[in-house]
Amino acid sequence: MRSFLFVTLASLVASQNFEAPDFNVTEALVSQGVNVSLLSSLGASTERSSGVACSAACLSLNILYGDSAVEFRNESGYSAFTSSFWSSISREVRPYCIFKPSTPEAISVLVLLSRLSQCPFALKSGGHSAFAGAASIEGGITVSFENLKSIKLSDDKKTVAVQPGNVWEDVLANLSTTGVTVLGGRVGDIGVGGLTTGGGISFLTNEYGFACDNVASFDVITASGTVITASPTDHNDLYWALRGGGNNFGVVVSFNLLTKPLPSDLIWGGTRVFTEDVFPKVVQAFTDLTFNSAQDPKAGSWLVFAEVETKIAVTELWYGAPDGSKSHLIAPFYNITAVSDTTKTRSHAAYVMDNKAVQIFGVRQIYYDLTTKASYEMALQAADTYYNATKSLSAVEGLLPTLVFQHVTHGSLKGATRNGGNAMGWDTDGGPLLLILVACQWKNAADDDKVYQVLSNLMTAIKALSVDLNVQNDWVYMNYASQFQNVIASYGEENKKRLKTIASKYDPTSVFQTLQPGYFKLDRAPLPDARYFSH
């Protein structure tokens, strides 16, 4: 009924468009070994998102791949899947079915079936997005990569091929005895796919750049069902676009990651917590590390402001080798009295697993971010703005808002220039950036609008503050953006135009804009809403 061999469909590749104008989806399915005569009901499915369309597509996947590969709403596996998302907002999404492919070829068929039926789909790697529709889709097909978890280190240990069903604790644990590691997420259950195509901050980012800047190549299934490799030498335009451009160009079925040496898998890091009386000193230490990172790029930090009975500042400090407290960039944090300290040397894999253990699952979540030029005054005044703004949410049950500062250092910016650069639109010759994230959790859906409005107003105020202090920067980090933010627009008009040109080449009928409508699209936010701050 089907073949597990990819076909190149080389005759379809034209000089301007990767897919021929007369491309026939049915013929492409036949070339993949699918007996379309058994799927005749798809011919009547013309209304996108209709029950008929998605019923036909899901039943077809069930015929092709069996009951174990497809979960329907009345099955226990369906409930187990939807309840596994980090954010309760994502848990509320009800796809028509869940598809669990075991081969990249099955994803190729899925894309073609979606085109034939016009049933939309979404892709789930780790499922750690805060908002609905990012990794699941109401009434459509949610594709779970959970059966695509291969991790293969090359013989020379220079690259490792990682499929998108892995989360970072899988990858780092697999590499922990090899003497090498990769730039991956800092929390163990973050998925490989979303983090990498959206940028990807690692414990090694100040030294080597973002995760997307350390990918040797991507194996991608295009809208025509064809598998291609995007690298600095092959389809290099697509390679550029996938580094920060999100899910707009194809389905990445293998990330071929560049490895970095890490003897014994050991790094240093942990948390130091400070009280309000030393906030200025903590901000100064963080700012100095940001500006001076090139002196010791193994050192890094993020800084969190929160209020848990009292106002606190929480610094996560790390170092890409053992004994990081000896670094002259980390030492200033130890000259400030802390109320707790968990810093220690441990394996890279253990560190991200420990960070996973303190995550809170199953509550409502929102992320919201913007960037400014790095500035002591900006950080200190933004903290005051945050504390004042969130007072109005005190009655919201289960509320925990935090203000998080991270740095995009000179080393991070230098990493973005490799192999033709990435799509994110940075001024790589400029100074370091301050990445400002507002993260908030709460309990009840009835409070959603109030939380969204207060946090939107907070972001607007922080943006205005950056203008007043002459440190404004327009870039928005995709992996921390809210559903109301038009991330691609923040990359600049030139990069947006280039991304759209590349998308039209590899996906001329806009499959990944219309049939995969979730997440950050080339022309819009996931949920455009003029009431809320965008960028």
TrEMBL record:
<keyword id="KW-0285">Flavoprotein</keyword>
<keyword id="KW-0560">Oxidoreductase</keyword>
<protein>
    <submittedName>
        <fullName>FAD binding domain-containing protein</fullName>
    </submittedName>
</protein>
<feature type="domain" description="FAD-binding PCMH-type">
    <location>
        <begin position="91"/>
        <end position="262"/>
    </location>
</feature>
<dbReference type="InterPro" id="IPR006094">
    <property type="entry name" value="Oxid_FAD_bind_N"/>
</dbReference>
<dbReference type="InterPro" id="IPR016169">
    <property type="entry name" value="FAD-bd_PCMH_sub2"/>
</dbReference>
<dbReference type="Pfam" id="PF08031">
    <property type="entry name" value="BBE"/>
</dbReference>
<feature type="signal peptide">
    <location>
        <begin position="1"/>
        <end position="15"/>
    </location>
</feature>
<dbReference type="InterPro" id="IPR036318">
    <property type="entry name" value="FAD-bd_PCMH-like_sf"/>
</dbReference>
<dbReference type="InterPro" id="IPR050416">
    <property type="entry name" value="FAD-linked_Oxidoreductase"/>
</dbReference>
<keyword id="KW-0274">FAD</keyword>
<dbReference type="Pfam" id="PF01565">
    <property type="entry name" value="FAD_binding_4"/>
</dbReference>
<keyword id="KW-0732">Signal</keyword>
<dbReference type="InterPro" id="IPR016166">
    <property type="entry name" value="FAD-bd_PCMH"/>
</dbReference>
<dbReference type="InterPro" id="IPR012951">
    <property type="entry name" value="BBE"/>
</dbReference>
<dbReference type="GO" id="GO:0016491">
    <property type="term" value="F:oxidoreductase activity"/>
</dbReference>
<comment type="similarity">
    <text>Belongs to the oxygen-dependent FAD-linked oxidoreductase family.</text>
</comment>
<dbReference type="GO" id="GO:0071949">
    <property type="term" value="F:FAD binding"/>
</dbReference>
